[in-house]
Amino acid sequence: MREITIVSFVSLDGVAQGPVQPDEDTSGGFTQSGWASGDLEDAMQLVNDGLMDPPVSFLFGRKTYDMFSASWPNDKTSLGDLFNTSRKYVVSSSLTEGAWENSEIIDGDVLEKLKQIKAEDGPRLQVHGSNALIQTLLANDLVDELRLLTFPVVLGHGQRLFGDGTAAAKLKLTSLTTGKSGVVMSIYRRQTA
Questions:
Q1: Within a 10 A sphere around the Cβ of 37, how many other Cβ atoms?
Q2: Integer-rounded Cα radius of gyration of the chain
Q3: CA distance 133 to 99
Q4: N or C: which end of the chain has fewer CB within 10 A?
Q5: What is d(CA 92, CA 4) in angstroms, rounded to the nearest whole number?
């Protein structure tokens, strides 16, 4: 059975919307995209420590897939190689084919297909960004681990990591690391009993 790990940038008040690039969805008046950019190098060091070791597969929503597939194919670093050569699953009702190498589209009964992929043998599935997909995973209790990078900023409003409909879960803190800029990575594992 494969584990699903969510990697998410969040503000102190739980906002996960638009941390790095401009968010085209300004619904609700969210105008603070890019709030994590100043501490991005520090955060990426925390993410890369151990998590980005192969083998790994990625699970993306459509918007995050489009953003990543626009930049990573041209990246010749070891991290670029990992993104480019790893299997990528993309949840989308409108995308019929993924142009990025090793991409597979998940459509139709998404929840059932996600359960099937999770039940297979294979490497950990990582979810980066993809807030709508994260809401589906959390609501259906499919998340095994959360790696939250909490930035020392309060935004006041925006889409929250834990939205309405999140399934109740008991988590155990397994690691806590603080970066030089004050970004904190907390790793939580789902407790089964």
A1: 12
A2: 16
A3: 20
A4: C
A5: 18
